[in-house]
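Aim 2 progress update. The chain analyzed this quarter is reproduced below.
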Amino acid sequence: MDEAGRIFSGCNIESASYGLSMCAERVAVFKALSEGAGKLVRIAVVAGTETLTPPCGACRQILWEFCRDAELLLANLAGKQESMAVSQIFPRPFDASFI
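Predicted structure tokens:
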């Protein structure tokens, strides 16, 4: 969700070549950016798993670069949830300041 309250959804896009698959988190962030979203303030990752599913490494990188101050909500279909800051899942991040 951006600061204006707009919600951007994403879903996993699977490919037979796993390396070309795209996770829902990155789809949602890229969709928000391409549609002119302002500051992204909340990211929700909902999975049909018993254990809450955190973003993968590639998604963490994108979340850091474009949503570092956002709230991250992890949830499952049974209603279990946990909230934290994006910065809490990615200590010592790599970003544009290193290039």
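The mean pLDDT is 92. The radius of gyration is 13 Å. These observations will guide the mutagenesis experiments scheduled for the next reporting period.
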